[in-house]
Amino acid sequence: MTDDSPVTAESPESPVHTTGTDHITVWGSNAEDTIAYYRDLLGMSLVLRQPNLDDPSQTHLFFDTGDGTILTVFVSDDRDSNARPLRTQTGGVHHLCFSLVPDRFEAVADALETAGYRYNVFDRGIFLSLYTRDPNGLTIELTVEKFDFPDDRTGEVLATAQRIREEDGAEYAETEHLAAALDELGIEAEAHDLPDAGSGVGGIR
User: Fold this and answer.
1) Average pLDDT over residues 181-188
2) Where would I find the beta strands (DSSP E) of the chain?
3) CATH of 23-145, one of 3.40.50.1100, 3.40.190.10, 3.10.180.10, 3.30.870.10
């Protein structure tokens, strides 16, 4: 069955309207490995540490992902890290995605390799993404936008690119659809100078 729900940046008629993402919480292993990855490697500030209020035997770590959106991790010193890929069930978290400064993309890839983390890079059409895994096998996507445009216009730009993609008969949104959407909306946006990468499907292997 095909879902033909409309794609639009307009707010739906619903009883609840969220105002943004406050935080995301994941299960972690121990504090040492978690802090070494998210703070010392990915550069997220550790802004709060306290007991897990639902289970005080565990610690609750709060990281600022860079724009005030918080990633929190439940950790316990008796849990070892396990880097094997997670097999996520329906309702589980497939991956977390964080944004990067475009001109730091290649330096980030080098830092991950130096730290011993494998990664793959893919051109996703509307952005360029690097896929890696955290110490517990959770897929982490690090992405850069192809064009510099205001964050508060993102939904509008993507919905317009979606319409253009469908009119073009393309399988997925590509750079040309994004550029056309920006032009249609009258948004002046500079294209970032990014490395070449293979397109299509795939993730961390």
Assistant:
1) 96
2) 23-27, 45-52, 55-64, 70-75, 95-99, 120-123, 127-133, 139-145, 147-148, 190-191
3) 3.10.180.10
